[in-house]
From TrEMBL:
<protein>
    <recommendedName>
        <fullName>YbjN domain-containing protein</fullName>
    </recommendedName>
</protein>
<dbReference type="Pfam" id="PF10722">
    <property type="entry name" value="YbjN"/>
</dbReference>
<dbReference type="InterPro" id="IPR019660">
    <property type="entry name" value="Put_sensory_transdc_reg_YbjN"/>
</dbReference>
Length: 167
């Protein structure tokens, strides 16, 4: 008697395919630059947010980044923004803001690992919502420092002002 061993593999959807589905459901403009890259624009309260999602098969991870449409110029502004980054990043549980030294761009970044590319629609939706919420929430703080001349402490206090109760 011969026993034939058949291996059953189930094809999992690419994590960016899942993300693309979430993006389409929200009616957001996007471009699939390649099988491993998706670029997305979302209108926010303060500005349009542009997100780039990149899948790294070798790391089994999905990286997202969103650059703000503002540049840090001058030594004084650099010190002020660096201080603000410290205050904001200490409050974030997931993701972080960076300052690209080459051109002074402020960027939100986060990466998630998906072993065997096993991701779900809800994970993609959470990842996108997390990034959008962080960018929306802290965008004004960066404006307060860069254009309003506020200190990092003043900017964070103004940006994270949360209303209590109902009017």
């Amino acid at each position: 008697m011969t026993v034939i061993h058949q291996e059953h593999t189930t094809s999992r959807p690419h994590p960016l395919d899942l993300l693309e589905r979430t993006v389409e459901e929200n009616g957001w403009a996007f471009e699939r630059a390649s099988a491993d890259e998706l670029n997305l624009s979302v209108a926010g309260r303060w500005s349009d947010h542009h997100f780039s999602f990149t899948w790294r098969d070798d790391l089994q991870s999905l990286h997202l980044s969103s650059a703000f449409d503002m540049r840090v110029k001058g030594e004084t502004r650099l010190v002020d923004i660096s201080s603000l980054l410290m205050f904001i990043n200490a409050r974030l549980w997931i993701g972080h803001f960076d300052l690209w030294p080459e051109d002074g761009t402020i960027v939100f970044r986060h990466a998630m690992i998906f072993p065997d590319a096993h991701a779900s629609d809800s994970q993609m939706e959470c990842l996108l919502n997390l990034a959008l919420e962080a960018c929306e929430h802290y965008y004004p703080a960066f404006q307060f420092v860069l254009w309003g001349g506020k200190t990092a402490q003043e900017a964070v206090a103004a940006a994270i002002l949360e209303c209590q109760g109902q009017a």
